[in-house]
Structures are given as C-alpha cells and as structure tokens.
Amino acid sequence: MVNLDEIFKPIYFKDGQMFWIDTRYIPWEEIWRHTKDYNRVAQAIKDMEIRGAPAIGVAAAFGMALAAIYSNARNIDELLKDLEKAKEVLSKTRPTAVNLFWALDRVMQAALKASESGDVEKVREVVLNEAYAIQREDIEQNVRMGKIGAELIEDGDVILTHCNTGALATAGYGTALGVIRAAWEQGKRIEVIATETRPVAQGARLTVWELVREGIPAKLISDTMVGYLMSKKKISKVFLGADRILLSGHFANKIGTYQIAVLAHYHKVPFYTVAPTSTIDPKRTLDQLVIEERSPEEVRRCPYPYEKIYVTVPSIDVYNPAFDVTPPELVTGIVTEEGVAYPPYWVSLREIMRKKGYQI
C-alpha cells in the first residue's frame, strides 16, 4: 500500500507560497525555489525549472492561486480580471502539453462558479482549494496508473524508458516511471534502461536520479543505442509518457519518442505510453497540434548549469523541436487511471473520456 503522504512531491504550496525543486540542477544539487508571484511561476515553467506535462499543470494551478491570493481586487469583477490576466501569462509558457491548459481552464471555471456568491474571499479560497485538488488527484491517479500498468510487466522484464516521467514530471510518483516503480514495489525483478534524452538530458539527469534513489536496477544509454539493443533482444517492453494524446491515438511526447516507436514496432517490442486522462485532448485533431520549438542553444551547448560549454560550432544553425508525434498504429496500449486503452483508439479513448464525464 502506497502512503500518499510519504510520496516525494516536487511542487507544493505552503504559507502562501509555491515551492518547487529546480530540475535544471539535478543530479548535482537539490535546489528548492519559492515565490508568491505567478509571473515567477510562469518563468519557471518556460525555463524548465518545472517540466513534465502533469507537473506543469499543477504549477499553473498554484500560479492561479497566487494570482487570487495576492490580487488587490476589491470586488469580483476586478478579481476575475486579474485571474484572466494570470491565465493568459501562464498559458503562453509551453504550447504542447495539454495539462497546462486543462488545469488553467479548470481553475478558472471554479473561480467563475464561486464568483456567483459575490464574495471575493470565497473566490480566493475556492481557487486555492481547486489547485490543491489538482495536485492531490494527480498523485492519486499516478498511483492508480502504476498498479494498472504494472500488470503489463512480467518478472525479469527489461524496460526501456525515454525522457523523465517520474515524480519530477508530476505532482508525485510518476506516470510511466510510476508504472515501473509499482512493478518494483510488487517485488518483480526488473531492470530499466534509460535513454540520455538529448538535448537537455532529462533521462540521464532526472530519470537516473529517481531510479537510483529508489534502488531500481538501471542502465543509461545514449539515444542512438536503442536500435542496437532491440536488435540484440535486450529490451522486453517500452514504457514512456505523453504530453498530449489525441482521440485518434496520436500522441506528442519528448523528441525521439517516434523513432523508438518505429524501432519497437520493427522488433516486435510492446510499446506503451502512460498518462492521466487530463493529457487526453478531446477537441484537437492532428493538424491542430502545435509542436514547441525551443532555443537552438539547448542543442549547441551542454545542459544547464553547464550551458557555457559548447558541443559544436557556435554559429551552426539548429533545428530543435521539443516533441514529436507517434501514430496510433505503433502503440500497443495507452495506460490511464481508468484502464488501458487498446486499438482502435478512436473507440477506446472515447469510452475512457466518457467515464470521466466528458460528452464526446
């Protein structure tokens, strides 16, 4: 039985402030930041101090809470205007992860409903409570996904994972790494292979840090080694996360995911993505999906905090999409807190969303 109170939480709210661990410094240092300013939260998301789709959503929700608490509004209209401004600022930080927009919309809807009371303080209280609820639900859903996904893992499996999908990418416990963690807690003898995940090495820095802390056997590889290991039958299954899942089954995830999916399909290695239903986007189609383009300096230089060191000719042009899109025909299953979706995804994902109360 997982004790939710003992789970490591990379983001939390206390004494009118939001606290978060700055993931740019891991594994070298564990530096905690804190603020009362939602603009600082937005900067933390944009600069990837906070990263991972669920974590971004939780941070945005607490950012809205800060906007409500420290607004100088004297009436409902002024407070709602300040919240809309905060929502606009926070929404411009990262364009691909749908959890960000889902959390902002959810908090804003709670504020609008509470505003019918005409009580400014009531709205502030409701906004903060909604942010707390988003944080708590994410942890509970991650633990539930872990148990569901762990059923897909057999004793002796060697599992490949890409980027970071652990506690650091969520409110706690993790998505794909949560599945791996749950299998380990069940006593299954497993080994994890983590990709380095260029250009900012979330796998090498963050995933390995989490696996070592948990005592889960792991090996680190460069992104270019995946095909070789699969050809040698050294990988049993792939589990990784998602930043946005479309009802068609297409999903956006960290750049490099698509090529892993192609290799897994060729080598007949089961390939799963793990994400809460808040990552499923029931409104957009593939042609409406926005892929974030990040700074070319991320590719030209070493990861933060060693970003002054170039790994190439400083003037070289760079292409740096943060995500790619994996088509549904390459996906074995999609693990959610409501169960595992299997092809055809346009049927199974709709059914899962209906369980969550969506009218689709």
TrEMBL record:
Keywords: Amino-acid biosynthesis, Isomerase, Methionine biosynthesis. It holds the Pfam family IF-2B. InterPro entries: IF-2B-related (IPR000649), IF-M1Pi (IPR005251), IF_2B-like_C (IPR042529), Initiation_fac_2B_a/b/d (IPR011559), M1Pi_N (IPR027363), NagB/RpiA_transferase-like (IPR037171). GO terms for biological process: L-methionine salvage from methylthioadenosine. The record marks C163 as: Transition state stabilizer. The active site is at D243 (proton donor). Substrate binds at R51, G52, A53, R94, Q202, N253, K254. Belongs to the EIF-2B alpha/beta/delta subunits family. MtnA subfamily. It catalyses: 5-(methylsulfanyl)-alpha-D-ribose 1-phosphate = 5-(methylsulfanyl)-D-ribulose 1-phosphate. Its EC number is 5.3.1.23. It is an enzyme of class 5 (isomerase). This is Putative methylthioribose-1-phosphate isomerase. GO terms for molecular function: S-methyl-5-thioribose-1-phosphate isomerase activity. Catalyzes the interconversion of methylthioribose-1-phosphate (MTR-1-P) into methylthioribulose-1-phosphate (MTRu-1-P). Coiled coil: none annotated. NCBIfam families: eIF-2B_rel, PRK05720.1, salvage_mtnA.
